[in-house]
Amino acid sequence: MMSKYVLRFVVFVGGLSMLMACGGGGGIPEEDNALTIKQLDHDVRTPSNITVAFKVETANGDPVAGLQTGDFNSVGAENNNFEIWENDRKISQDESTAKIDPDSGDFDYYVYMLLDLSQSILNNSLDQTKLGAKTLVENLFAKGFRANSLKVKIAFFDGSDAVQVIQNFTDDASILQEKIDEITTDISNDPSTNLYGAVIKGVEELNSTIVESQISEEKYIVAGSLILFTDGTDQASRKTFNQALDAVDNANPNAKIFSIGLGGETDEDVLQRIGKDGYKKAEDAADLADTFGQIADLIVQETDSYYVLRYCSPKRGGANNSLKLVAKRDGLIGEMTLQFNAENFVSGCFVE
Predict the structure, then answer these.
(1) pLDDT digits over 259-310, tens only?
(2) Do 158 and 282 reside in the same domain of the chain?
(3) Alpha-carbon span 15 to 18, nearest angstrom
């Protein structure tokens, strides 16, 4: 698997072919480019196969999920959100085979749930917090999440320096539910809250998990989310707000960070800054299941904004061909372009 997030040339052994990434722009003026296609990885090889992993967002960075995908036979139809062009000419299904599909085999997504289990939670709202955590797990696994691509980790923090693991990353929802059920009031006796320290450690752990998976797994897309839940403010003073914010601002590009606040003793400005990709507040503990469910919905939308194009090019020559992918939805449009070398392309390509 090729390195991610860098402008690069990709040369396959034996001189098979070469593909150059040209960024997310093309012929559409930036001010009118209301959709952004972010290239994450790509691959090109004989006989004439091109694969591109990408993410679609609005100009504000919100995920664009649920774009019409499937076999290339529907490309150009009114209900299809994608077009494929080569050398400024739209490619038809008679000329090529292509598929845009979020295949689970190309995708790993890590969700790290970090719960405040200091004494205020344990004494007043533990059952509701557990129900919220279980709702998030249930919703993630129940809402069409790509099979075998989701892995969830649960940990907690109090006033201590360490973050305590309840369950490491697993794709088994039943194990996660059992581990949540096993949480009792004697899991901690610390009344303090190391909120900022927990944010820093959570971001660091998610960053390292994404990087390690990118290195060790043959995946086109590796991403994740951190969910931080608390009912208060930082009391431990082990780290500062600026240190926590620095960790959030410098998180892995494919790491999204969400926060949940409970009750009136939280600092909403702080949690909104920490939860840069989504913040939800539960006014009362009875609202926690619904609030955790809302965060699960945001994560599902995020994951559904990733796509993989598998494509058989009809080109059989030329060292500097262009491939343009166009995404359209509700009058909004965006595009990305790639340059590829087809001098060694031959017939025999197929898309699984």
Answers:
(1) 999 999 999 999 999 999 999 999 999 999 999 999 999 999 999 899 999 9
(2) yes
(3) 8
Q: Is residue 346 part of a domain?
A: no
Place of tokens 């929802």: 173
Report the distance separating Cα 144 and Cα 64, nearest Å: 16
Residue 57 domain flag: yes
CA distances to 25, 91, 216 from 86, rounded to whole Å, are 15, 7, 33
Residue whose C-alpha is closest to residue 256's, from 316, 321, 300: 300
Strands (E), the chain: 9-11, 18-21, 35-45, 49-58, 70-71, 82-86, 89-90, 97-100, 107-116, 150-157, 164-170, 221-230, 255-262, 279-282, 306-312, 321-329, 332-341
- Confidence bin at 13 (pLDDT 50/70/90): very low
User: What predicted TM-score, i.e. pTM, was given to this entire model?
Assistant: 0.86
Distances (CA, A) of 121 to 81, 170, 184, 341: 46, 25, 11, 59
Task: For residue 75, name the pLDDT band (cuts at 50, 70, 90).
Answer: very low
Same domain for 213 and 289, yes or no, is yes
Distance CA 108, CA 210 (A): 9
Q: For residue 11, report the phi and psi dihedrals to the nearest 5 degrees.
A: -120, 125
Q: What percent of the chain has pLDDT over 90?
A: 70
Domain that holds residue 84: 9-102+307-341
3 inside domain? no
Kindly report the backbone phi and psi dihedral angles of residue 317, in degrees, each rounded to the nearest multiple of 5, phi listed first.
180, 170
> What is the rounded distance in angstroms from the CA atom of residue 200 to the CA atom of residue 247?
6
Distance in angstroms (rounded) separating the CA atoms of residues 288 and 280: 10
Report the domain count for the chain.
2
Closest CA to 226 of 148, 146, 109: 109
Q: At what angle do helices 241-249 and 195-216 cross, to 10 degrees?
A: 20
Kindly report the backbone phi and psi dihedral angles of residue 29, in degrees, each rounded to the nearest multiple of 5, phi listed first. -60, 145
Distance CA 45, CA 311 (A): 11
> Between vectors from CA 254 to CA 226 and to CA 215, what angle results, nearest 5°?
105
